[in-house]
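During the reporting period the student researcher (J.K.) took over the structure-prediction task from the postdoctoral fellow and processed the backlog of single-chain submissions. One of the processed entries is reproduced below for the supervisory committee.
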Amino acid sequence: MDRPGDRPGDGAVDMAAIAARAPVIPVLTIERLETAVPLARALVRGGLPVLEITLRTAAALEAIRAVAAEVPEALVGAGTVLDPAQLDQVQRAGACFAVSPGCTEALARAARSSGMPFLPGVQTVSEAMALGGLGFEILKFFPADAAGGLTWIKAVGAPLSGVRFCPTGGITAETAPAYLALPNVACVGGSWVAPRVAVATGDWQSVERLAATASALKRR
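J.K. obtained the following structure tokens:
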């Protein structure tokens, strides 16, 4: 059976299936390639199989390749995708989905044409309306904490009833449950499950424990 993200098709539908896999998507900034696979394995063991590796470091693309090849239980995606060229790069590297902090018309068109599940970022109602009109039913709300947080998401629930969000940016273990309790939140993204010190020291047991706690969070 195909896993969500393994096959081409409607990006909106596939992204919904990916978001349904776990309440939290770890947002990972990989500084050293050798940490990518053990980090991914620890997160998967803890119950978080959907991983976003951001394109913020020189190791990012190789990290995506390594996790895609060596951790088949993971659904590895690429974050901080800013343009169609990067979208093509991450798809070739084996990413199952792509995430952007915002979205341009060119990037939205490229994502739809590629068939790759895509989570575009928004910060305003107008942006959400525009992307919803293009068929993207799950949107990244970023930076969530700075852009209105829970208050914003609650306020747009009725007028944007056909859209759900993945809030990312400033989400913590303490605030995640309140976001996940909202009916228009599909999942949340966060880096707290992979603390910098734990990754740097190879403390994979701590990462696994944090992932297990996150994976047990309830969604409405």
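The committee noted the following: The first strand starts at residue 24 and ends at 28.
J.K. will present the remaining backlog at the next meeting.
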